[in-house]
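re: the backbone from monday

yeah here it is again, tokenized this time
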């Protein structure tokens, strides 16, 4: 009986370690993709899936103004890193975005 309890504890520890590694991998990929792009607005044609993105290179959340193909503008608070902003306003194609200040 003691042997099976020890095996269960070891199995639980192995599963926890595997999950911890899984959680770290997406963050590493996000950081890598942030380095692939310049800071600021990234036009849809510059991304593999043709979706507009905003790469905020600073350490804090900031407000950006997002403009769509109908020239409608809307504010959006974004965290550091690459953010998918395509279709943010009414589902229309995003054509521009720029920094306006802190959130």
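seq for it, each position gets an aa:
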């Amino acid at each position: 009986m003691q042997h099976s309890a020890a095996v269960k504890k070891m199995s639980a520890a192995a599963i926890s370690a595997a999950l911890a590694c899984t959680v770290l991998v997406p963050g590493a990929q996000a950081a890598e993709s942030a380095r692939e792009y310049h800071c600021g607005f990234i036009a849809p044609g510059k991304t593999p899936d043709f979706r507009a993105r905003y790469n905020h290179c600073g350490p804090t959340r900031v407000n950006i103004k997002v403009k769509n193909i109908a020239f409608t503008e809307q504010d959006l608070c974004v965290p550091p890193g690459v953010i998918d902003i395509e279709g943010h306003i009414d589902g229309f194609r995003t054509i521009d975005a720029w920094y306006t200040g802190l959130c």
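The first strand starts at residue 40 and ends at 42. The radius of gyration is 20 Å.
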